[in-house]
Design brief:
heterodimer; A: alpha/beta; 5-stranded parallel β-sheet; 18% strand; B: alpha/beta; 5-stranded mixed β-sheet; 15 helices; 19% strand
């Protein structure tokens, strides 16, 4: 099996379980973390293809996690989807600036989330051949 | 008001009046009032700006400021300081106007009684203090409301997320096969989750509309696409209710100058309402056309054969929190925010919304949106009757995103847009609204009054700024900038300014359209 591995950072145990069921049914391996510290320690332990990150976490919120990921050259390469119930307008831009690849509002639509995940787990190497050389001289 | 004396600034050019007022205040004792006197508005402004004045006594006929102007200047210099204006007997009407503009009181010269003046000054200070407190209270209330709603909707979303997640897991068969009935029931649960979700979204939208924090981005939008998309979305729920949903669009419907997301939001609210209030066997229809009375607007109408409304209700239906009372037995009420949001969104996009309805026969909601016009965008270039020579360049900025996520693409194109805007010369170049030509990447177009040399300078400036500011390697964003010269078109001496704008916009339109087929005509 060569499944892509997704780290889920979510403090709500029910929601965490829901993610696991959905992602496993769609052939992703999942690693779970319930807070910021767990998130960084899991991310450092193993190679990951994607992180799904909640913003409201105990002991340091999702922005703290984004910050910690950004300062580590290896971890900063992992795409992050921020999934939050917080106000989209107030948080989306901030999350994207902090290094997230996408912001998804809770509750999400499964099909859209899965499509986004499958786009983002495509490793940069897979894309290179499709990048047109359009930058002017 | 014990302790420190009240600091009074008297702005008055008549020496007699000054000594009269000085005497009146002196009789109150030295500890009560301290008077500073100035003759000119100019010096009073400087003094007020320094602070420390408790109340201003202002003559409305100063050597360097007359009438309401002196009041406005004083208020601008010290917005929170109470003002009493002094006028002559024949000017009482002016004094009333001054009150309407924020003066706390007025006094008629020659009729000021010595015991009334100190009282008027103290009243003015006290009233101003109460006003400031009240304003602050309302401001805090509004802020509290927004924070509260934001908090509540976040807290409501968390459990709703888990509910939706597990319902979807069950409905998707991830926890075992379902029979037909079970699947149907879970669809009903999901539908209701959707309703709850949009109510939570509405709760947040309203304070944002009130505080002007909601953003509208106008671009060229195909109304026909929006209408057909939204109809397709609702086709299922209409059919399930036994309601016929149809649309009627003319073959050639011009695009609107609107925000595509907000246009959809409006259509969704109106369609959802129409289907909700129409019984089985009824119909809902959307029509769009150019407004017959004014071709610069599009008219969209959503009509239903539902329960309709009384005249009293039609008058109030766009109010916030207004709800239909008892007329729709079968349906659940919402929060009473949808039509309010609709009205605000239509207004923000430069349109108007109205409703016609007859009880038991149905309702028609109509709204107008401006037709997209390149002419409107480039018209500012022709201000003061200026007509550029025959050289106009069309600059194309094409972006390509390595990052596949839609969010960061939007973010990226926003950055590119503002970067391009910074490179433009005011009155010579104009960034055209988004027009959605071409499928891959984003394209921005600039109409520039420039010859070949000018155009290539602009192109280089955009490239330089891009490399310097957006760090293309990191953001995964690439950019190509090119230009084409428009066919020279003669500045026909007989043509009106309007005709020239129209002629130039159709030139631009043609170039933009043809470039989506072939980019050969563009120079790097």
């Amino acid at each position: 099996m060569n499944n892509k591995k997704v780290l889920i950072v979510e403090d709500d145990a029910d929601v965490r379980l829901g993610y696991r069921i959905l992602l496993q049914a769609n052939h992703y391996d999942t690693v779970l973390a319930a807070d910021a510290i767990g998130a960084i320690s899991e991310a450092s332990k193993q190679p990951l293809d994607l992180i799904v990150l909640d913003l409201g976490l105990p002991a340091g919120d999702g922005f703290v996690v984004l910050e910690k990921l950004q300062v580590n050259p290896q971890l900063s390469m992992i795409p992050v989807i921020v999934v939050s119930g917080r106000d989209l307008h107030a948080n989306k831009e901030r999350a994207l600036k902090a290094g997230a690849s996408a912001f998804v509002q809770k509750p999400w639509n499964d099909d859209e989330l899965l499509a986004l995940i499958s786009q983002l787990v495509t490793r940069p190497g897979d894309l290179v051949s499709r990048v047109p050389n359009t930058e002017g001289s | 008001m014990n302790g420190k004396p009240v600091q009074v600034l008297l702005v008055e050019d008549s020496a007699g009046d000054v000594s009269l007022i000085r005497a009146m205040l002196k009789s109150e004792g030295p500890a009560s009032f301290e008077l500073t006197h100035m003759v000119f508005m100019g010096e009073a402004e400087v003094h007020l700006a320094k602070g420390g004045v408790d109340v201003v006594l202002l003559d409305m006929g100063l050597p360097d400021a007359h009438g309401l102007e002196s009041l406005r200047r004083a208020r601008a210099a010290a917005p929170g300081v109470p003002l009493i204006v002094m006028t002559g007997l024949e000017d009482e009407a002016l004094a009333a106007e001054a009150m309407a503009e924020g003066a706390q009181d007025y006094m008629i010269k020659g009729q000021i009684e010595s015991h009334a003046l100190p009282r008027a000054l103290r009243h003015a200070i006290e009233r101003q203090r109460m006003q400031t407190e009240t304003n602050l209270f309302w401001k805090n209330q509004a802020q509290f409301k927004e924070e509260f709603l934001s908090h509540v909707s976040h807290e409501l979303r968390s459990p709703l997320t888990a509910i939706k997640q597990f319902t979807s897991i069950l409905a998707g068969g991830l926890a075992g096969e379902l029979n037909k009935e079970q699947r149907e029931y879970l669809q009903i649960v999901l539908k209701n989750i959707g309703q709850l979700q949009s109510m939570i979204d509405d709760l947040l939208e309203v304070p944002r509309l009130k505080t002007g924090k909601l953003t509208i981005e106008l671009e060229r939008v195909s109304v026909a696409n929006a209408v057909t998309d939204c109809c397709n979305t609702f086709q299922g729920s209409a059919r399930a209710k036994g309601v016929t949903l149809s649309y009627d669009l003319p073959a050639e419907l011009p695009p609107a100058h609107a925000d595509p997301t907000r246009l959809r939001q409006i259509l969704i609210i109106l369609l959802d309402n129409a289907i909700k209030f129409t019984p089985s066997g009824g119909s809902v229809k959307i029509q769009a056309q150019v407004l017959p009375q004014d071709p610069s607007f599009l008219l969209l109408e959503i009509s239903d054969t539902g329960c309709g409304m009384s005249p009293e209700m039609t008058g109030r239906v766009f109010e916030r929190l207004y709800q239909a009372s008892g007329s729709a037995p079968a349906s659940r009420k919402g929060l009473g925010l949808g039509l309010f949001i609709c009205k605000e969104l239509v207004t923000l996009q430069g349109g108007q919304i109205s409703v016609k309805s007859q009880l038991d026969l149905g309702s028609t909601f109509s709204f107008m949106l401006p037709v997209f016009s390149l002419s409107n965008s480039i018209a500012p270039l022709f201000h003061n009757g200026r007509w550029p020579a025959d050289s106009v360049a069309l600059v194309m900025v094409k972006t390509c995103f390595l990052d596949a996520s839609k969010e960061s693409q939007e973010e990226g194109s926003q950055q590119v847009r503002s970067l391009v805007e910074r490179c433009l010369m005011p009155n010579l170049d104009v960034l055209l609204p988004k027009m959605s030509y071409g499928a891959e990447g984003e394209r921005f177009f600039v109409a520039a009054f420039a010859n070949e040399k000018g155009a290539s300078i602009l192109v280089n400036r955009i490239r330089d700024q891009f490399k310097r500011l957006l760090q293309p390697k990191q953001t995964g964003l690439t950019l190509s900038v090119s230009y084409t010269m428009l066919q020279p078109f003669p500045a026909d001496a007989g043509a009106s300014a309007e005709e020239r704008v129209t002629s130039m916009s159709s030139h631009l339109e043609q170039s933009i359209q043809s470039q989506s087929l072939s980019e050969a005509s563009f120079h790097e």
